[in-house]
Design a protein that fits this description.
CATH class: Alpha Beta
Distance between the termini: 59 Å
Largest sheet: 6 strands, mixed
Oligomer: single chain
Radius of gyration: 19 Å
Structural class: alpha+beta
Low-confidence stretches: 5-20
Number of strands: 6
Number of domains: 1
Helix content: 25-40%
Order of helices and strands: HHEEHEEEE
Length: 152
């Protein structure tokens, strides 16, 4: 009797632990989905709303900040460039022990129309670091680079 009660309590605690972690992971997965959908839809206001004002961004061209990136990306869109499609795959989410930092890494398959109307089809590796402050998650760091081409 004691052993079955102890076993039942252990299973219950394990279940609660899984449920507690499912909520934040689902929240970040949803935020990543919304963030990348805004990017793919070229919705600049919504897209930039996911970033903290002091975010640091590492792109293939080097490190930048939000004001510089916002200016560059807005000019790209106004000049006729745009994202035609964006698909996220292989999403992994990890959390700090305090639960106030989430790291999401994934592959981002993009079709982009350049300003000269040329269409590119590329895959990128992206890592987004989210901080939770005042009950709101914001992206504070991004690392974005081309994914290696698979060997044939």
């Amino acid at each position: 009797m004691k052993l079955s009660t102890l076993y039942s309590c252990a299973l219950l605690l394990c279940g609660w632990s899984t449920l507690a972690n499912a909520g934040p992971k689902a929240d970040i997965s949803q935020l990543e989905s919304e963030f990348n959908a805004a990017y793919a839809a070229n919705d600049l206001d919504k897209y930039f709303g996911y970033y903290s004002d002091d975010a640091i961004l590492w792109f293939p061209e080097g490190r930048t900040d939000i004001p510089s990136y916002k200016k560059e990306w807005t000019e790209f869109i106004k000049s006729g460039g745009r994202i035609l499609a964006g698909t996220v795959s292989d999403l992994h989410v990890r959390f700090s022990p305090q639960g106030d930092t989430a790291i999401a890494s994934y592959l981002l398959h993009l079709k982009t129309q350049e300003t000269d109307k040329k269409v590119t089809d590329e895959v990128f590796q992206e890592t987004d670091v989210w901080f939770k402050a005042a009950e709101s998650w914001k992206i504070t760091h991004v690392h974005y680079s081309p994914a290696a081409t698979p060997h044939k």
